[in-house]
Automatic annotation (TrEMBL):
Chain ranges passing through the membrane: none
Organism the protein comes from: Caminibacter pacificus
InterPro entries to which the protein is assigned, alphabetical: SAM-dependent_MTases_sf (IPR029063)
Protein name: Class I SAM-dependent methyltransferase
Record-linked CDD domains: AdoMet_MTases
Lineage: Bacteria, Pseudomonadati, Campylobacterota, Epsilonproteobacteria, Nautiliales
Gene3D superfamilies listed in its UniProt record: Vaccinia Virus protein VP39 (3.40.50.150)
Domain of life: Bacteria
Amino acid sequence: MREFYEFIIPYLKGKTLLDIGCGSCRDVAFFTSLGFDVECVEPSIEFRKICSKKDSSIKIYNQKLPHIKLSKKYDVVTLIGVWMHLRKFYYVKAIENLKSLLKRKGVLILSFSTKKRDGFDSINTKNLKFLFLKNGFRLLKENISNDSLDRKIDWVTQVYILDKIT
């Protein structure tokens, strides 16, 4: 994870961060150590319980992309190991949902595997970038890295900024 964190640190701006699909809240301590007010979205009751045990002060919403309804907007939204859980027919709705959660010039960080495996569809990064660009995002940086658990998959990390709110 160190390589991943080093890659995204230059793009972590502002004060508020929403971690969508936070899982066991592995990344929350890192984000809070940087001074972010972190809130999370996690549909799994088991993971929400784990997060609450780690830090009972964390606000965790029981919601799921692409149907997240929150009243506030965030400086940064992260989806780490989440996008491959989405079916392709939800991509546009999910991107629109993410736009509704970000402040203008807010940063979106996606990290996902691209290879078809264990119930996950393959992800065409070129098509995904096109969908984000078409919906008002601009790609700032992209990185491809090996899996830290030595599985035969690569991870793509994309950092976007929301340029246009329509």
